[in-house]
Design brief:
It comes from Algoriphagus namhaensis. Keywords: Isomerase. This is Sugar phosphate isomerase/epimerase family protein. Pfam families: AP_endonuc_2. The protein starts with a strand and ends with a helix. Helix 1 runs parallel beside helix 2 (about 45-55), helix 2 (about 45-55) packs parallel to helix 3 and helix 7 runs parallel beside helix 8. The protein contains 10 helices and 8 strands. The chain has a single domain, classed as Divalent-metal-dependent TIM barrel enzymes (TIM Barrel). Strands 5-4-3-2-1-8-7-6 form an 8-stranded parallel β-sheet. Helices cover about 45% and strands about 15% of the residues. By secondary structure, it is an alpha/beta fold.
């Protein structure tokens, strides 16, 4: 059965008790879960927020990114080892939140580029880090779902074809693919074909509008998207990820210079869109 989630990055990147009223309202709307960014917050906050989610019956998924100092595809073995240790820490914090899935572009450092296209050794280095990460995550009961990002934010994996190639090298049953309609809208020739292509490895799904605003307000064809999800028999999270300038530091870090939609507009109308599409396609 599909579960509907909402990424609280629309309000804040920080994990803290300040999110409690937001989490309560998401639960009231009908959401099954919330998604949190795992960053350098106070360690005690993860368990605190995780306990609150458990108390109100809200399930959890998590997302993260890697920086250039812990780049999994660095030619420096010490940097790659730092990536492994960082991802282990992130997984421990995710476990304290009660996370079921860790998604995001942690196969390589965010917005860190080379003056060339990715080559075989880049994928090999990433796969070695991700295999160790998937193995540790499995012991915690967390599924790893690395994500392909658009060319302006990511060097290694922009398309489902590249992500599939990487995952074949990772070769671990606890490493699956993540699909995000925002990035696919920019990078894939045909959204439905890309979903069908990655279907055997699909483990997590982000519902995101072309401008990161309220799902259904832009030009992403969600009717086609849900029809394809029905076709492939996807049973997993459908998590809305939209961005605002509510958290200026986070917004600046990802180049969000204007508000696309208000967070509660995204949450309420986005939930209605997903529910209506699930009912329409009898998923």
């Amino acid at each position: 059965m599909n579960k509907i989630g909402f990424n609280v990055l629309a309000w804040s990147a920080e994990v803290s008790e300040n999110l409690f009223p937001i989490l309560d309202r998401l639960k009231e709307i009908g959401y099954d879960g919330a998604e949190f960014f795992v960053g350098p917050w106070e360690e005690k906050a993860f368990k605190l927020v995780g306990n609150h989610c458990a108390d109100i019956g809200l399930q959890v998924t998590t997302v993260t990114v890697m920086g250039p100092d812990e780049n999994p595809i660095s030619p420096d073995a010490a940097v790659r080892n730092k990536a492994k240790q960082k991802l282990k820490w992130i997984l421990d914090r995710s476990a304290e939140l009660g996370s079921q899935v860790l998604c995001g572009p942690y196969h390589s450092a965010f917005a860190t580029f080379e003056e060339r296209a990715p080559v075989e050794v880049d994928y090999d280095r990433s796969a070695e880090v991700l295999h160790a990460t998937a193995e540790y995550a499995e012991s915690l009961g967390i599924l790893c779902t690395p994500e392909a990002l658009n060319r302006f934010e990511c060097f290694l994996c922009n398309t489902m074809e590249q992500l599939d190639y990487l995952l074949a090298k990772v070769n671990h049953p606890n490493a699956k693919a993540m699909f995000d309609t925002h990035h696919a809208n920019m990078e894939e020739k045909k959204m439905d074909q890309a979903i069908e292509f990655i279907a055997p490895k699909l483990g997590h799904f982000h519902i995101s509008e072309n401008d990161r605003g309220t799902p259904g307000s832009g030009h992403v064809d969600f009717d086609q998207t849900f029809s394809t999800l029905k076709k492939i028999g996807y049973q997993g999270w459908l998590t809305i990820e939209g961005f605002t300038r509510n958290d200026p530091a986070f917004a600046n870090s990802i180049g969000v210079w204007r508000n696309f939609s208000e967070p509660w507009d995204m949450a309420e109308k986005g939930y209605e869109l997903i529910k209506s599409q699930l009912e329409k396609h009898r998923i």
